[in-house]
Predict the 3D structure of the following.
Amino acid sequence: ARAAWVKAWTMMGFGAFVLGRAVWSLWFGAVPEPVTMGAVGALALAVNVGVAALLYAHREGDANRRSVWLCSRNDALGNLAVMGAALGVAGTKTAWPDLAVAGFMAVLALQGGLAVRRQARAELASAAAPTCSTPQRG
């Protein structure tokens, strides 16, 4: 549960970074290269779908298993979104589709991190609770 706690903060940190990077790109960034975006998104999707399929059975496990499942699921969803953004960037010649996907991915990472943190906190609390019982009379 302690490792999941750290993982949760890492997920939330990634979400905050992506959100910050999107804001920075909004003010100072250039239009990304859509062919590269699409190719990298497709390759990453193939890998992440394979990993998510392997982890599917563990999606309701302890906080560690759940965090790995959520990251793989979020990555695969993010890859689909990046591929869609690549089409949008190619069609509009603007960065807006890319920025929208960045916001989506940031929300996924923040939501996943919060869910894992909540579960890890509950597991840590239950592990810290006294487990010895006193015999009952009567």
Notes: The helical segments are 2-28, 34-55, 63-92, 96-128. Residues 29 and 95 are 8 Å apart (CA to CA). The chain has a mean pLDDT of 86. The first helix runs from residue 2 to 28.
